[in-house]
Design brief:
heterodimer, A: about 325 residues, mainly alpha, MetI-like fold, 2 domains, about 75% helix, globular, disordered N terminus, B: about 300 residues, about 0% strand
């Protein structure tokens, strides 16, 4: 009798999705709203990606428009924008990574070995704060400060006898402005992960090192730093995976006609071509190219991370 | 014996000098960093309440000069800003509620080891992290559903963020044990009732984290509104800010000939500059007021997120 019951349970389990629905119907109900919304707004657009191989005609819709093969891709690869856009995207993200990544680690190491606990708390609170400033306000602040006529930075330059610089119109300054304002905004926030990892370092290690006569700097160098190295490696690898995806929001706001040569990146170009110029399918093609590169990068990088440290996203 | 203690003392002193140098270097570097981060924020505050003349002359450095609230007055008289403020509050509240209603049940269900669909659904979500339709196809879908120019275009497409879902799932996994459910199930409690009357009340920490992450995300976002909102009266605050702070909608371009009019224009221009500082303060107020109270939740969220679930 008992055995029979057990057997029926296992057959139920083997029934797959229908059995699962019957057994866990309430949990399926829980995931249903999210699944429906994600399906509509993430999966249906994936279906729309076929536009990249079609000539979009609003009257015929996505399905009815005619196929054009790889035309949009060859057009993009041959366009004069291709090189500029790819180069700008790569430079901006590599520069951001090189500038921002070590600073967050150094900040966490310094904060961790800082002995005034109250002052440390103040420093943390203040350095985390800019992370919550919206992109629009951040860019508004930059434009205000860097304004050639009334900006504070140019006031300082003028005070020391220099001539005012129109920062936002100079191509040579644009990348530095973008990257270092980003560092200013996120260094505190990005240091939290490392700070948390440092909190996990056993105090016994520190005590043993002190007994052996290690100086504070040696403790940081030989105990603290190695202990956050795994976290840092994973984050670095993951960051490398997203090197082709620079966020649209800030670049778009800091962009103007004078600095477009260095500030036009893939996502802003997609927006410009698709929604301003109305080349829906061409723009979809560029977007598809970008997300394909991103996906490949992420998978490759994830594999490397898995091999090296046994940590992967999935 | 005494010789030895002297030696130890000496060694100790030597150590403490290098340590003292180290401490003071760190103290100085961190203080400089603190000033670099804090000063621009402080500058905006003092500029917003200073005399516009003094601000544009570069006299305002350490403290406000000729205190005035003209900038704020100007902001409050600008109807588009107030409308944007109200719109943003509505979008943020509704958006966050929907985010919670979708994210919490999903992450709870996925945290249950016995949920036979957990794997399939997790893969369903992970795929979206790697593959996306991109800007234009998403736009077409929203357009096709006639959501453009409505609040829903800002709320529904991002109703569930995979990262936040994973944070919440990790939380549920480690805080709401299977045994707890089994105990309740023996007393005849189903999953739905268990979730609402036992799991949720025990999860105020994750609730706070999600409210803050999603809420601040809604308040600060401008991109979806830029894509989908066509009517100016429906603009959220960030889009209004964009037109004033970035596109300089108020840059008074009319050509003036008389000297008196020109002077008036210059005066007006300075007032607009002042207004920008006040605008930055006003738009950041909701977040900045919350910030000191919620900082620890934010930090906790990062830590839960960093532990792989």
């Amino acid at each position: 009798m008992k055995k029979g019951k057990n057997a029926s349970v296992t057959t139920k389990k083997r029934k797959g999705i229908i059995g699962s629905l019957r057994k866990d119907w309430s949990l399926w109900l829980f995931v249903l709203p999210g699944v429906i919304l994600t399906f509509i707004f993430s999966y249906v657009p994936m279906y729309g990606v076929q536009l990249a191989f079609k000539k979009y005609n609003p009257k015929l819709g996505i399905w009815g428009s005619g196929w054009v093969g790889l035309t949009h891709f060859t057009r993009f690869f041959n366009s004069p924008y291709f090189e500029t856009v790819i180069k700008n995207t790569l430079i901006i993200s590599a520069y951001s990574l090189l500038a921002g990544f070590p600073i967050a680690i150094i900040l966490a190491l310094m904060l961790n070995s800082f002995k005034h606990k109250k002052y440390r708390k103040i420093i943390q609170t203040v350095t985390y704060a800019p992370n919550f400033i919206s992109t629009v306000v951040m860019c508004g602040m930059l434009i205000l400060f860097l304004s050639p006529s009334s900006g504070a930075i140019n006031k300082v330059i003028a005070y020391f006898g220099g001539t005012a610089i129109n920062f936002m119109a100079e191509k040579s300054y644009w990348r530095h402005i973008y990257v270092w304002s980003g560092v200013w905004q996120t260094m505190g926030w990005n240091s939290i992960v490392y700070f948390a990892a440092l909190a996990g370092v056993s105090p016994e290690l520190h005590e043993a090192a002190i007994c052996d006569g290690a100086s504070k700097f040696q403790i940081v160098r030989y105990i603290d730093f190695p202990s956050i190295l795994p976290t840092a490696t994973i984050l670095l690898i993951l960051n490398c995976g997203s090197i082709m995806s620079v966020g649209f929001e800030k670049v778009f706001l800091l962009q103007n006609d004078l600095n477009k040569g260095v500030s036009e990146i893939i996502s802003t170009y997609t927006y410009q071509v698709g929604l301003i110029d109305g080349n829906i399918s061409y723009s979809t093609g560029i977007g598809l190219f970008n997300s394909a590169v991103n996906a490949v990068l992420l998978i490759v990088v994830n594999k490397i991370s898995d091999k090296l440290s046994g940590t992967s996203l999935y | 014996m005494s010789n030895r203690t002297v030696k130890v003392k000496k060694k100790k002193r030597k150590q403490s000098t290098t340590d003292r140098i180290y401490d003071s270097v760190i103290f100085i570097v961190l203080t400089i960093l603190l000033l670099i981060v804090a000063y621009p924020l402080y500058f905006i505050i003092i500029s917003s309440i200073s005399d516009p003349q003094a601000v544009s002359a570069g006299k305002v450095v350490l403290y406000p000069i000729g205190i005035t609230l003209k900038g704020y007055q100007e902001v409050f008289e600008e109807s588009s800003v107030m409308r944007g403020f109200v719109n943003s509050i509505i979008y943020t509240v509704c958006g966050t509620l929907i985010n919670l209603a979708v994210t919490l049940p999903t992450s709870y269900a996925l945290s249950r080891e016995k949920f036979s669909g957990a794997k399939v659904v997790s893969i369903f979500y992970i795929i979206t992290m790697f593959v996306s339709g991109g800007m234009i196809p998403t736009y077409l879908v929203v357009n096709y559903l006639h959501l453009t120019d409505t609040m829903w275009s800002l709320i529904l497409p991002g109703a569930l963020t995979v990262y936040n879902m994973i944070v919440a799932r990790t939380f549920f996994k480690s805080n709401i044990s299977e045994e707890l459910y089994e105990a309740a199930a023996i007393d005849g409690c189903g999953q739905i009732r268990f979730f609402f009357s036992i799991a949720l009340p025990l999860s105020s920490a994750i609730l706070a984290i999600l409210v803050l992450y999603y809420g601040i995300g809604h308040w600060n976002s401008y991109f979806s509104a830029l894509l989908y909102m066509k009517t100016e009266t429906k603009y959220p605050l960030q889009l209004v800010l964009r037109s004033i702070l970035i596109q300089n909608a108020n840059a008074l371009n009319q050509s003036v000939t008389t000297a008196a009019a020109q002077a008036a224009l210059l005066e007006k221009k300075k007032l607009v500059e002042l207004m920008k500082y006040s605008l930055i303060i006003i738009s950041s107020i909701p977040v900045m007021i919350l910030y000191p109270f919620v900082q620890k939740h934010f930090v906790k969220g990062v830590m839960i997120g960093s532990v792989k679930g």
